[in-house]
Fold each of these.
Amino acid sequence: MAVQSVHGLPNRLTYPPALGVFVLLGFAGGGPWRRGVVAGVGVGLLFAVSTLQLGRRGFGPADAKLALSCAALLGVGWRAVVLRLVVAFFPSGLVSLTLLATRLVRWSTRLPVGPFRVLGVGAALVLGPLIMGSWRRGASHRPTTP
């Protein structure tokens, strides 16, 4: 059994979702829209820089474009964006480790990240508030030292 993948999402699949997320955030009002734009542009630039710096070893251009809409959708504060991006990458890591363990791929194999990130963003939107709530409750119960 061979694992076959196609790399690179076309622009018609990356730019309309980003525009749609920004328009929907615009309907939400000032605060969420600004946070979403800052998160989307910030994470998009981070992915773009990593793409330029790492070349074929890093994320592809499609990943940088997809990061615009994913981060904008998750953009409710930097802690939440970082935590939810970690949750969004979890499915990709799990599948990658499974494929490595079953020897269907090698370390040098390039696997697509985009579909897993979309799945992970959905999970992060559902699980993110639960994780953030328990994280905040845990942080507020820490004993203080004199």
Amino acid sequence: MRKVLRVLIILIASIFLLEFAFAFSSWHLDRNIANVLPEGKLIFIKGNQFKDRKKRVWKLQSQQNNMFHQPTSRFTYKNDFYPNFNVRLRVNCDKPNIKLLSETGRCSSFEAILQPDGTYLMSGKERCTYNYCHPKDFFGKVGHLFVDVIPHLINSDYKI
């Protein structure tokens, strides 16, 4: 039992050290060079899917998958919100930012965080970032956690 515990502690410590080193690497800090935002108005296709001017499909994410991209203060209601869509979306005053993902075809995804005024969130810890692992299925979510989320929580001081 002690051997198993020792191996487990060494494994966890090794993962932590690797995550910490990765969070300060240029591969992590330069990730947004590869990110792309939607172009033009987003046209409703079906369900949670929208298409931009470049015919790129963007999927609207649930609030559960958007918790790291919300402002700290409550949103003040305005009449015209999310003008980037051809359909009217409801605004959640506690969690007003919308997260959109577009798969790249390489197991990664572009990420866009849309604020109610129609601008994309491009700075701060809540900003949009390129995802090396697209969180589509179980393995994608595990990869996303280790390659995208944990390094972001350790160091979100991106160069771009």
